Amino acid sequence: MIAIFCLVVSTGAQAERFGIKVLTSKGEPIEHAVAALIPKDSTTIPPLIPSEPAVLDQIDRQFKPYVLAIQAGQRVSFPNSDSIKHHVYSFSDPKTFELRLYKDKIPEPLEFETPGIVALGCNIHDWMIGYIYVAESPWFGISAADGEIGIDLPAGEYRLKVWHPLMQEIDLQREQDVTIGAALQQEWMLKAPLHSPNFGGLADEFDDY
Q1: Model-level pTM greater than 0.85?
Q2: Which letter does DSSP use for residue 42 in this model?
Q3: Residue 132 CB neighbour total at 10 angstroms
Q4: CATH number of 54-134
Q5: 53-62, 101-110, 171-180: which range is least confident on average?
């Protein structure tokens, strides 16, 4: 299970700092958790989408980063830094696509228009698993090894979503209202343990690709 402690600290008249730390039930920090804040007033969402594509690389036969978070409408580039070919695909509803075997030539960046979770795989290396979290607003972050996330955003009423690739369904459905602009500390405890990670072995019979 994960405990989540939130603290909102003012950083000025125009913006607030939302801090969140993601911990296991034993008090250990957890990496790769996404926190996203969606304003209840959708008119406050800035219309600007980052012009530069986000990058999800392939290094040592793994997706790097393991979890990438972007804003809906943003593009993602998929370079391959390995010396072998990869075949990237997704069957997820928000974005179904396929980048056939490639190595040196980087495919054109793909646009991810629909919010949701996009699970990635490699058709050659079955253990390669990655995720793209497509957020509804620009206010999101991913926990580092220390479990901490910091998000700067305007004061107001928001809906908080927390996601991790190994969460079970009962926790994936949970959301919570938060008020940004007032001191806040809260605890969020998952109702079910995380799934066990399964990345498979790294033996590769396709080194010639």
Answers
A1: yes
A2: G
A3: 25
A4: 2.60.40.420
A5: 171-180
